[in-house]
Amino acid sequence: MTSKPGKRYPFADGTRNRFGKSSLGSGLSASNSNTRIVQRGQLQPTPSAVLSPQVSTSVNLGLNSERSRGMMIERLRRQGITDERVLAAMQAVPRHQFVDQGLASRAYEDDALPIGFAQTISQPWVVAHMISLVCDQKIPTKVLEVGAGCGYQAAVLAQLVKEVYAVERIKGLCDMARDHMRQLGLSQRARIMFGDGMQGYPAAAPYDAIVVAAAGPVIPRTLLEQLTLGGRLIAPEGTTQQRLVLVERTGQATWRREELDAVRFVPMRAGTQI
């Protein structure tokens, strides 16, 4: 893989790139894979693993979810998400259907929420930001998602993309994601596979875009090789310190990479879990 010239983390105070101002080196951090990014000096969000479900019987989600989603969209605009296609896709997907019923009243907050198996549903800003990056120049036709979780990001992608393939290594989450696709009528558009995400899904390769929802020390070359020429991959990279990395395939054996925001994702693991 080829990189842009220069050191790996050359900018102490952030820089600009073709996507706008980068948070690289600007002091932003995240407490886990999907919680909000906070400015230095702010209180860190409570880790999702210790959140206490707060059941609210007074909230009628059937009546209020549209309004709550609208508020989420306005918040995403304030956070810098400007692609109206992505915002419309986020508006179309009922996030409260992807979380435990006891947490449904919190579904449209800008937080990760536990979905079982020590995993979380990504915060809305993370989903919107990553999808915006791979859709920046044009909407891809075929996308691979690595780490389907409960299926929320795949459902958002399916509002934009003709073919979505999502791989999940935890069998219980894979089944959950498939159920959600069926309930929303997206099974033909978003296919959920049980398997090792580090291997991608060669059967449907190459992909116009790949979205990775777990971080490894390096991005697996297997995934890079499943990109089509000109295709884009967005993934977190690193261990204790992670950066969101955008990779574009420029040739048969060459890729251009750009390091963006400071993030924290769950670790990428090989194999499967029954």
Structural topology:
Layout: E1 15-17, E2 20-22, H1 61-78, H2 84-92, E3 113-116, E4 119-121, H3 124-134, E5 142-146, H4 152-158, E6 163-168, H5 171-183, E7 190-194, E8 207-212, H6 221-224, E9 227-238, E10 242-251, E11 254-263
Parallel strand pairs: 5-6, 5-8, 6-7, 8-9
Antiparallel strand pairs: 1-2, 3-4, 9-10, 10-11
Radius of gyration: 18 Å
Number of E strands = 11
Q: What is the 3D shape? A: globular
Order of helices and strands: EEHHEEHEHEHEEHEEE
Compute the number of helices.
6
What is the mean predicted local confidence, pLDDT?
A: 82
Tell me the strand order in the biggest sheet. Answer: 7-6-5-8-9-10-11
Class by helix and strand content?
alpha/beta
Share of helix, binned? 10-25%
Characterize the main sheet.
7 strands, mixed
| Unreliable residue stretches | 1-59
Task: Describe the oligomeric state of these chains in a short phrase.
Answer: single chain
- Roughly what fraction of the amino acids lie in strands? 15-25%
Amino- and carboxy-terminal Cα gap: 33 Å
Question: What keyword list fits this structure?
Answer:
274 residues; alpha/beta; seven-stranded mixed sheet; 24% strand; globular
Characterise the protein shown here.
- The protein contains six helices and eleven strands.
- The longest helix has 18 residues, at 61-78.
- With 274 residues, it is an alpha/beta fold.
- Strand 8 (207-212), helix 6 (221-224) and strand 9 (227-238) form a beta-alpha-beta unit.
- The strands form three sheets. Strands 7-6-5-8-9-10-11 form a seven-stranded mixed sheet, covered by helices on one side.
- The radius of gyration is 18 Å and the shape is globular.
- Residues 1-59 have low confidence and may be disordered.
- Helix 1 packs antiparallel against helix 2.
